[in-house]
Amino acid sequence: ILFLAINLLQSVRNSLSTPAARRIVRKSKGDDADLCLRLWNELMQTHTNALRAQHVKLAGGHAMTSMEKRFWDVAPIATSDCLDSLQNLLPVPHFLASVSSILNDDEEDTASSSIHKKKIIRLLGDRVAEVIYDSPEASLFLEMVPDIVAQVNLDCLATGDGEDSLASIRRTVVMQQGALVAIESFVRSLYPSVESGKLTANAAAVFLPALTTIAKILDTTAASWIKANVNGGNGALSGAVDAQCQLLSSSSLCVSTLVTTLKARCLPQLPSIIKPLVTSLKSVNALMQESENKATSTGELLQLSILKTLQAIAETMPQFLLPYLPLLFSNGGLPSGALRQGHHQGEHSIRNAVMSLETTFATKVQVRQLIPALSQALSKKLQAENGAKWDEACSIINLMSSSIESSQRSELSPIIGK
What we know:
The protein is an all-alpha fold and 418 residues long.
């Protein structure tokens, strides 16, 4: 039976790869389209069950024959290949209707349903990457954005203790990360690259509420993660807290993409974006400086994600950064030595990212706004109660020099006296 199942799956995969089958599926209408959709749903369920059973077999340590081992190795790959081929051929309305039904299914959160939805979200992100913003299909995909945002807005802070609770938290966070990546694909493909009147307005009407939701998740996750760090000390980056840190990184990267695309339309959300970003940066900087393990990859990823998002904000809305400059250059923020260690590859990347961000500040932010803020920050570093923070002071002085070098003489005259 296993041998027959393997060959049947491989036959379906090979058949879907033929030009004739691709033409039939792509041009299917009515009953034929419904049949193709049913095949897709059956393959999706088979793929989910195969992954689930494979996990149970491997985790349980059951003895398997060579044929069983081959089956559990081949079945998930074969069903995944079939799905990848079929999902690119299904008519868009049928595909999206099925996806919406699965995402809105109120089935209890289990490992099986989680695997199913993760696969759906990944396929959706792959499919939208081929859509052009002014195509007829674009409006149909835009209607899917609220369903994806709903997957981001799940509560990852499960109650209870033990391995089951931790596994549930991790499943939820992985689902949220997948949805965030899909939203990035949607905004890149569906938001007009140039102002296009009604098309731009329609896309903005969908993505701005998504940004609002993600900004709230960013704020909530940052507050929870920072609190856990305070309570947990150097060992906080583990288990559920580690999952929260990863979600914080993914949220930051998604916000970066949305800000880069939506530009000044993001202005109302700027306070709810910058404040959690900077407080998280200060927290992870302190954690990296205090930790004996300087190469904590999760912490480094969070630093890079935050720096990338701040870079996007500085490039798209530099004229609106004035109220946030004191926070950005406060103790443990951008001037922190934790961003400039550069002892190995990860820290070298972080150092390059912060240097790029400082260059953007020096060239984009008006010198009459930047220099007074830097002067106040420098004064606080040199007059700190616990002694002057020379490393942070030097970082600020370097930024001041870069800003002055990038400015015209006429721009410097009003601030010389300050």
